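I'd like us to work through together how a protein chain folds, taking it slowly. To get us started, please write out a protein record for me. Label the sequence line and the structure token line clearly, so we can match residues to local backbone shapes. Once you have written the record down, we can walk along the chain together.
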Amino acid sequence: MSKIKLSEISTGVPDNLKKKKAELKTIEMAIKIGQLQHKLYAERKQSLLVVLQGMDASGKDGTIKTTFADCNPTGIDTFGFKKPTSEEMAHDFLWRIHKRTPEHGNIMVFNRSHYEDILIQRVHKWIDFDRVEKRMKAINAFEKLLEFDNDTKVLKFYMHISPERQLEKLQERIDDPEKNWKHKAEDWEERKLWSEYMEAYEYAINQSDIPWHIVPCDKRWYRNYHISKIVLKALEDMHPEMPVLKEHDE
């Protein structure tokens, strides 16, 4: 299998797709996702874990809001993994992750995930490459455990944004008062390490046993369309069914 090189993959929109048509289709898909989530929650035999990873301002929050707009909040959760606490640091790196995986019937969306432990930690050289390789093997084993031992479908998305578009979005957080709350000075510092992050992401993507979906994110409408289409297909393939009342339960 050939290695994925992110610089060779477009962050833009295919020429044959029209914005208005894609936006309408995205709304339709969100409704269908909500309907399937209802069945998944009622059935309580399977679960879905959605992993969103990408550089700052790649659109993780907007993706969650749009793709799962019609889902019942009772059966869906989101969680973003930040700097580990002292308690989390005292355990193995997957300890805090395993506690957040979805129970049967639920969808969990990771807004940043267990991959932070081989991305930011690698880029800042808080761990050496030998530790990165060992953690990658542990991640593969962990994800296989979820899929094959717990009926949890794992979907992983790399939010592929260009440095030029990221710059625009980071600047918006300064210029637009409605977005000031999103501004973080450290995002600009992390941006300086773009090349190092791309190298780390390519390693994680190419060494993963469960494939990643590379999502062009320069245009939010196409990003939402692309991810919604994949999530819907995954739920359809899971074939959740509404439970039927048995005679002895009447």
The chain has one domain: 18-239. Residues 16 and 138 are 41 Å apart (CA to CA). The chain is about 50% helix and 10% strand. Residues 18-239 form a domain with the Rossmann fold fold (CATH 3.40.50.300).
